[in-house]
Amino acid sequence: MKVTKKKRPAKLEGVLLLIRKNAEEGNYTSTLHSGERQGERKITILEALSILRNGYREESKDEFKTEYSAWNYAMRGKTIDARELRVVVSFDAEGMLIITAIELGVGNGKKNR
Asked: pLDDT (tens digit, 9 = 90+) per residue, 58-79?
């Protein structure tokens, strides 16, 4: 019996504008994971939203999640106090989901750029 792999869907067209629009209009849901990680990492929702509205796409960090059959999209930018953050979002039938937020260059051996 031949097993056929399910083809992964293409990334969303115009995802940068979609992310910015949803962040600007408040059309998002923070996942439980995101809330927990933001609390642990001392990243506020306002900082995360600022990255989504003003940051840049970090396509090399996009990741397809087979368990959800969905793409996670990475945004990167700096807060007003110059902390470098990555915010990861996804989309489902309900809209945009904030998956997680990470401060870069803290305890991971990488320097901020």
From this structure: 999 999 999 989 999 999 999 9
- The pTM for the full model equals 0.86
Under-50 pLDDT residues of the chain: 109-113
CA distance 84 to 79: 7
**Domain ranges (residues) in the chain:** 32-103
Calpha distance 90→5 (Å, rounded): 22
Closest by CA to 30, choosing from 99, 101, 102, is 99
Q: How far apart are CA 95 and CA 89, in angstroms?
A: 10
Identify the DSSP state of 94.
Answer: T
Q: Which two tokens stand for residue 76?
A: 């990167």
On whether the CB atoms of residues 102 and 66 are closer than 8 A, the answer is: no
